[in-house]
Amino acid sequence: MNAAWLLAMVAGLDLAAPLDPHRGRALAARGLAVLQDDRYVAAPGLTELLADPDQARFLNLTGNLRQAATAATGAAGWHNNDDDTLLEQGKASVSGIRLGTRHTLSLLGGLTERLAEPGAELLDVGVGTGGMISALCADLPALRGTGIDVLPRALDLAKRMVADFGVAERVELRLQIVADLDDRDRYDMAWVPTIFIPSAAVFAALPRLLAALRRGGWLVLGGVRYEGDEFSDAITGWRVIRDGGTAAPADDLIERLREAGFDDVRRLPVPPGAPAVIGARLVWPRRASRTARFSEALRRSFPHWITPTSSSSVAMTRTSS
Q1: CA Rg, the chain, in Å?
Q2: Is 318 helix (H, G, I), strand (E, B) or coil?
């Protein structure tokens, strides 16, 4: 209980004002404040952390406290949080883009450059309040986006978010489940925050998401990031399941992506506090069989010995050199 109150003290901290003695003493007991000229002030590390507006929003301390209070009532599900809590979470997504997500995406085979090209399109599955799609479209003026969600209330909040960012004309919002997605060869990137989407829906949708991507387009999953601490990981898993999301570890998601037909699957480095991020794309032509892929690999390795005779077989005949 004291830990929750300590977090509340930090969340409500005004760095420009002196700490009252009681708050200062409590924070100092945990190394978060120091005594200076007979007055308590925030410790240098805490001041540095909270002085960056994007970092402070990314931490989303107030939003996390509100979510914990909602959980304490027994209400389960992301949708049971109030509008202010959900919007705070959306702003945290925006700050995540500013702090490092774009750098993470730049590790995916020229994706950042691709999203900046005229005609580029982004799909945001489970768009929520629209923080992710708004930030990317605001930063990339040529990018158009489509956001889908199953909650009308979420889409109403997303409409406000995209309008605030001035990108409403380039963002389409749909009330749609991902299992009904029928777009083909349309998107350069699809973003799926699996921590907010049930595992059955995520896994069933992978073939449709593969079909919706343009050749070489990337599917990017935001998944649970387990740190190896038993207590912390148990809390993380419980929170994700409570919100109706997928708690599968990254290795399981990677295996599912490969089973669905993605052949370039990568887990990417992320900043502290960020979810696990996995990128996946199809490098080989769609529906190419394993035999065809093996044949092509042989042809490239032994060009003078192997002549392709069909999409699924090779003839072992020497060609002239």
Answers
A1: 24
A2: coil
Do the Cβ atoms of 162 and 171 come closer than 8 Å? yes
Give the whole-angstrom CA distance, residue 293 versus residue 284.
8
Angle between helices 250-260 and 199-212 (to 10 degrees): 40
Is the Cβ–Cβ distance between 84 and 113 less than 8 Å?
A: no
As a whole number, the mean pLDDT across the chain is 81
| Amino acid type, 180 | D
Residues sharing a CB contact under 8 Å with residue 252, sequence separation 6 or more, in sequence order: none
- Is pLDDT at 48 greater than 80 in this prediction? no
- Give the pLDDT confidence of 278-310 residue by residue, as tens digits: 999 988 665 544 544 554 455 555 544 444 433
Residues pairing with 193 in the sheet:
222
| Residue 274 per-residue DSSP state | P
| Residue 82 DSSP class | -
Whether 125 and 190 have beta carbons less than 8 Å apart is answered as yes
Give 208-238 pLDDT, tens digit per residue: 999 999 999 999 999 999 988 898 899 889 8
Q: How far apart are CA 197 and CA 60, in angstroms?
A: 21
Neighbours of 308 (CB within 10 A): 14
CA distance 148 to 157: 13
Query: pTM for the whole thing?
Result: 0.74
3-state secondary structure 166-197: CCHHHEEEEECCHHHCCCCCCEEEEEEEHHHC
What are the tokens at 252? Answer: 């399981």
> Around Cβ 112, how many Cβ atoms within 10 Å?
17
